[in-house]
Amino acid sequence: MDKKGIVTFGGAFSNHLAAVAAICQQQGMRSVALLRADNADPDNPTLALCQKNGMQFELLSRQQYRQRANPAFIREVKQRYAELLLVPEGGSSAEGVQGIAELDLVQTPAGPADVVFCPAASGGTAAGIINRTRDPTQVQAIAVVKDPSLGARITELLLPQHNPNWALLSQYCGPGYAKFEPSTLQFCRDMAQHDVQLEPIYSGKALAGVFQQIAAGQFEPGCRLSFFHTGGLQGLAGLHYRQLITSADYALLSGSSAY
């Protein structure tokens, strides 16, 4: 890559920003966040982690942030940060989709998966899996956000030879993005007892949806299921910081013995 780093978009508790900061620090590259925030709260654990990894912040108002897909705004950002690669929010670009498509998520210890599941927010992960897999393997993208445009965004990122056997499930998103029901948190607690680390915003919400389908008898006996855990565990610190989960839950879900 002829660029010297990455400039990208995200909110104050963005998993995407945390991941970009970490990989850029690891590769000795510069990282800049166009941050949807009025101020960079120094006590915010996600922003503190990003800054620890060398990320710089440019603050955007909510009105400015809404322009992130505006061609004129994008051109201006590219001009200002000409030495950096501009990556869209959530990493959902053709390049990001290609990266996901290089992963083999179909193989399981019991053999090739019949159904592959993933959480879906910005759509890039789902599109990459759909591009990689082939019919009769089914892909279920489980929406974690109430976004009527999500299906169209996934479709825009698909290659002509993509797997046609896919579906977007929106019935498990609960109260919406970055929100969760008590039952989802309890599901995460239950899975933690089996050493499966989840958070209730992305993977926990989506995997709970898979378990609900299993309980409803949606899959034939012997059906092989594969779930792609998209990470985001750093977000647990942000939930604790905002008092959305207790110290006990934070310790349990994060696998930490200290609060």
UniProtKB/TrEMBL annotation:
Keyword GTP-binding carried by entry: no
Enzyme class label: hydrolase
GO molecular function: 1-aminocyclopropane-1-carboxylate deaminase activity; D-cysteine desulfhydrase activity
Cofactor(s) it depends on: pyridoxal 5'-phosphate
Annotated EC: 3.5.99.7
UniProt KW keywords: Hydrolase, Pyridoxal phosphate
Classification via Gene3D superfamilies: 3.40.50.1100
One Pfam family named in its UniProt record: PALP
Keyword Transcription regulation applies: no
Chain ranges of the Tryptophan synthase beta chain-like PALP domain: 4-231
Active-site annotation: S14
PANTHER family, per the entry: 1-AMINOCYCLOPROPANE-1-CARBOXYLATE DEAMINASE-RELATED (PTHR43780:SF2)
Family under the similarity heading: Belongs to the ACC deaminase/D-cysteine desulfhydrase family.
Protein name per its UniProtKB record: 1-aminocyclopropane-1-carboxylate deaminase
Natural source organism: Rheinheimera sp. BAL341
